[in-house]
Amino acid sequence: MSTTPPVPASTTQTEDTAPVPPRKLTRLEKRAIATKGRLTSPWASLTAVILAVLWTIPTAGLLVTSFRPEIDIRTSGWWTVVPGLFNGETELTLDNYDQALFGNGSNLADSFVNTFVITIPAVVIPITVALLAAYGFAWIEFPGRNVLFVAVFALQVVPIQVTLVPLLTNYNGWGMAGSFWTVWLSHSIFALPLAVFLLHNFMKDIPRSLVEAARVDGAGHVKIFFRVLFPLLVPAIAAFGIFQFLWVWNDLLVGLTFAAPEYRPLTVVVADLAGSRGGDWHLLTAGAFIAMIVPLIVFLLLQRYFVRGMLAGAVKG
């Protein structure tokens, strides 16, 4: 009886069980792995901790000083608070905040409300206009589009200080000087070049096939903008919105130049607290921390949207 010769083991392997050669890493992936190794090293972590501590020390000193009585601020440093608390020689108080918000002439409470009234429209107006302009530059063909876009982008290099006198002259001629409108329009004008540039770049990263498919289905520009592009632009809008909010909230120059005394933002009033010789340090420290608490909260709560918006579209594929 004849027998079938055994099949060699090497021939019994199928394509499914054959070893797969390792994929060759691209240059970008190699750089990412190397960068991750450097950033996660103990020395990098130690350096980051040291920088964070050094960066936080002035803010911590400002916070501690804002709770100290005026006499203690003038006679000793804020770093003596901890030993003084244990010895019973130091006390903390909320009088500085009470005087800064509602006391003699400072009245930060009203300027705090004015800052909100200035900041919210100064964020919404440029984003709304920039979205429409960026869509036109990105998806609508018209003569001179590239030249006009370069001109808009070039406006970023114009110093704000150069525009103050011409804008103030025009506002006086239009009869609207000193109102909230002058501050809103000024902030919007200064923010539009960067807003158009950023949003245009995000729109150009959206696959053209999505827009073409919507056009095949009969969608016009309005439906394409709101149904196709707008949901994809939320990270970019959030990122620029946070950036613009922080910039307007902390602005001093525009509010000092265009706002009337009754419409002054918080930064102008805090600057006035220092006086010509820096006399009211106890009120200045409390006022400075009142001014920084809102942007600090906004950034901490929305920082993931800010980072996501800054990184969106940075890498294709």
Describe the structure.
- The protein is mostly helical.
- The protein folds into 2 domains: 42-93, no CATH class; 102-311, Orthogonal Bundle (MetI-like fold), CATH 1.10.3720.
- Helix content is 71%, strand content 0%.
- It is built from 15 helices and no strands.
- It has helices spanning 27-39, 42-66, 70-75, 81-87, 95-102, 108-139, 145-154, 160-174, 180-205, 208-216, 221-232, 234-249, 253-258, 266-273, 281-311.
- α6 (108-139) packs parallel to α9 (180-205) and α7 crosses α9.
- It is flat.
- The chain starts with 26 loop residues before the first helix and ends in a 6-residue tail after the last helix.
- The model is unreliable at 10-15 and 313-317 (pLDDT under 50).
Provide a short characterization of the protein structure.
The protein has 317 residues and is mostly helical.
CATH fold field value of the largest domain:
MetI-like fold
Number of helices: 15
- In CATH, the homologous superfamily of the largest domain goes by the name MetI-like
CATH class (first level) name of the largest domain: Mainly Alpha
Average per-residue pLDDT, rounded, comes to 81
Residues in helices, as a percent range: over 70%
> Spans of 5+ residues with little confidence (pLDDT < 50)?
10-15, 313-317
Q: Please indicate the percent range of residues in DSSP E strands (runs of 2 or more).
A: under 5%
Oligomer: single chain
Radius of gyration: 29 Å
Helix and strand pattern: HHHHHHHHHHHHHHH
Principal-axis shape: flat
User: How does the major sheet shape up?
Assistant: none
Structural category:
mainly alpha
CATH architecture annotation name of the largest domain: Orthogonal Bundle
User: Could you give the distance between the termini?
Assistant: 63 Å
Q: How many DSSP-defined strands? A: 0
Q: State the domain count.
A: 2
